[in-house]
Amino acid sequence: MSKVIAIGPYSDSDAAALKRDFDALRLPGLAAIADLPEDQRRAVRAVAFMGHDPFGGATMDLLPGLKAIANFGVGYDAIDVAAATARGIRVTNTPEVLNDDVADLAVAMWIAQARDFEIAIRNARSGDWGRGVRLPLARKASGRRVGVLGLGRIGREIADRLAGFKCEIHYQSRSRKDTPAGWTYHADPVDLARAVDDLIVAVVGGPETEGFVSAEVLAALGPDGVIVNISRGSVIDEEALIGALQSGAIRAAALDVFRGEPQIDPRLLALPNILPLPHIGSATVETRAAMGALQRANLRAILAGQDPETPVN
Ligand code: NAP
């Protein structure tokens, strides 16, 4: 009987590896655990988890022999880690291996909004260019003052890339970091927003950062400002963001993550000044393969009674 349950939309190669290495039982979602026969639930020792549905104590209790939840992804805000710890369940994630992809995407989104890619692409595709329709001028990206909210692993990669674009780097974290000379630390998100032209959000999701990007932060960014979010939808007060984009309190937003995703608030989608992406931060063949390998290494370690490579608890 399978000791490992695999939940989520794995690639064919990851699904095959989970089957080969652990004889894993694929389930479509957490809700399907309750439908398993009791002897099968009792046999389960680990869950290979990919997804954003809340994984709480009640679900863990359906698997009384559970020893590990190996998350596919660095953000584990969907998993109730305190509930897992209280039950002696190890939680792991897949940090570092996705930094480059997510940072690349953040910078691409930032440039796309500065240079008004969507309007320009429409102009070319529609034949408007050929008909002589002129575009309004966009904005220069290089050299802008950019704030990184959350200078963690991904935030640092974003800031390093922006330095290559001759940007003035500002950041907010809970404590000052060891950075190249000239980067400016701000303890408060509003102070950060006030000091910069654009803001890139790279802080963790979860209850502690809920609504961190508030109406006040957006107002401080100002009417020329662009906000890019690659962290979690919960970090931005989405009502305030919609209001700010509608009124012109900020110029534009580029969002890879949303509250209630994969559904996107229709008011956001109706706005011409957002660039929406369907949470593709780490979605490359190379990075997803590395994330899968790390997830399986963590599973293997815990099932063998060893410490995992990248523990959360
Ligand atoms: P990380 O290294 O842990 O950095 C997280 C940042 O969040 C740090 O700057 C940290 O602040 C800050 N932070 C943590 N807890 C906080 C709190 N309670 N209050 C205020 N700030 C807090 O994480 P990472 O690897 O860079 O990943 C960051 C996030 O990106 C993930 O959690 C995930 O949600 C998101 N992500 C998204 C995608 C995507 O596909 N779009 C892909 C990967 C990751 P300090 O600097 O003060 O420690």
TrEMBL record:
Q: From the UniProt record, which GO molecular function terms apply?
A: glyoxylate reductase (NADPH) activity; hydroxypyruvate reductase [NAD(P)H] activity; NAD binding
Query: Quick check: keyword NADP in the entry?
Result: yes
Asked if NAD is a keyword of the record, the answer is yes
Taxonomic lineage of this organism? Bacteria, Pseudomonadati, Pseudomonadota, Alphaproteobacteria, Rhodobacterales
Q: Which residues form the D-isomer specific 2-hydroxyacid dehydrogenase catalytic domain?
A: 42-313
| Protein name, UniProt field | Lactate dehydrogenase-like 2-hydroxyacid dehydrogenase
**Pfam families linked:** 2-Hacid_dh (PF00389), 2-Hacid_dh_C (PF02826)
Residues forming the D-isomer specific 2-hydroxyacid dehydrogenase NAD-binding domain are 107-281
Q: Which UniProt keywords apply?
A: NAD, NADP, Oxidoreductase
Output the Gene Ontology cellular-component terms.
cytosol
Q: Which domain of life is it from?
A: Bacteria
Family, similarity comment? Belongs to the D-isomer specific 2-hydroxyacid dehydrogenase family.
